[in-house]
Amino acid sequence: MRILAGLAVALSLAGCTVIPDARPPQDLGTVEVPEPVPADTALAAGVMPGPAIETMPFAGFDAAPALEAFRRSCDKILFREDTSGLTRRVDWQAPCGAATNWSSDPADFFRSQFETAIVADGSAFATGYYEPEILGSRERRPGYEVPVYAYPSDLERAWPADVPEEEREGRPPLGRYDENGEFVRYFERSEIAGGALEGKVPVIAWAADPVEFFFLQIQGSGLLRLPDGGVMRIGYAGQNGREYVAIGRPMREQGLIGEGTDYPTSMQGIISWLRDNPGRQDEILDLNKSWIFFRELDTEGPLGSIEVPVFARDSVAVDPKFVPYGAPVWLDMESDVADGLWIAQDTGGAIKGANRFDTFWGNGADARQIAGEMSSSGKAYLLLPKGTLARLKQ
């Protein structure tokens, strides 16, 4: 959502212009994620026809929310390049035009406008994410002491002097210029939590609980429940450029969670351990050097990578090199709750490779439970505008 990789949209925040890099990774180190297919794009991984679109069981699911999610995406996908190599902007004109005024059976919309395709062998793996709701305040007050920082004005991209010219490929790293004018890496989590940005970077809100805020940062967006009962929605603005560490892995290795302990290898298990061991809380959280900066949102839902609000059970995060943004995806997973139509509207730092999906479940206790436990294999069928496969064969 967060959220949000490869986003080429400038955001005005705290008096500076920034381009978010990526939604934070969703992998907590509590599940074994399959290795990505060794290919750069869907086209390189191989694409073949899937089942006839008429045979897809759309009737057994509510296609109306998926149609609405697709409509919301059209203003974006009609004007951006597809990095998967599968579609062109012109390919989306017909389905987007049809979606605008579609008033009959939503399932018929997908049958009439799309054809199914299988990328690589179609073997899929899905996790889940959600929009956390935690206690927060617009002003600092007793019990609300964790700063929610806006994007820092001194966080920028440049090449450090010790990187030779011949090695300067791709985007420069994130960092800052120190007092000597040298470009150095940005502050890591422990330094920021220790006050390195105090008085230097705008604070848009204050969170009550450092553990809950840590997990909100991992999700990349969330709701702050204010003392007056109101709600403030915050969304991903950028990241400090430091290493993301899925804390579940070292916790497992240290025997803190998992087999032989009282704490399951899940988000809930990690939180329980942190609550029961407050003396080591900072030590464990600081293993993850990444820190997420936020902006306030006034949207209906959190924003996905294409700057479109995402909604529960309709939006899925993908690797855009393997799934075009805006494309419908049919998932048939071992965990039946994830079965059905999803629209690719988001991405994430841990969502890499063919048929890797992160399903969005909204907010609230049920969403948190489902997302925290979602780890399922299955099959994925990509829906492409009709005629795409024939063109790719030429």
List the helices and strands and how they pair.
Layout: E1 11-13, E2 16-18, H1 42-45, E3 47-49, H2 63-77, H3 93-100, H4 106-113, E4 114-119, E5 123-131, E6 133-137, E7 146-149, E8 156-157, E9 174-177, E10 183-184, H5 189-193, E11 203-207, H6 210-219, E12 221-225, E13 231-239, H7 248-253, H8 267-276, H9 281-285, E14 292-297, E15 315-317, E16 328-333, E17 340-346, E18 356-363, H10 365-373, E19 375-385, H11 388-393
Parallel strand pairs: 5-18, 6-12, 15-17
Antiparallel strand pairs: 1-2, 3-4, 4-19, 5-19, 6-11, 7-11, 8-9, 9-10, 12-13, 13-14, 15-18, 16-17, 16-19
Pfam families: 3D, MltA
Domain Lytic transglycosylase MltA: 133-295
EC number: 4.2.2.n1
What is the CATH class name of the largest domain?
A: Mainly Beta
Within CATH, the superfamily of the largest domain carries the name RlpA-like domain
Q: How many E strands? A: 19
User: What helical percentage do the residues reach?
Assistant: 10-25%
**Major sheet: arrangement of strands:** 5-18-15-17-16-19
Judged by helices, strands and strand pairing, the structural class is alpha+beta
Mean pLDDT: 89
Low-confidence stretches: 1-22
Briefly characterize the structure.
The chain is of the alpha+beta class and 394 residues long. The protein folds into 2 domains: 42-129 and 311-393, Barwin-like endoglucanases, CATH 2.40.40.10; 131-297, Barwin-like endoglucanases (Ribosomal Protein L25, Chain P).
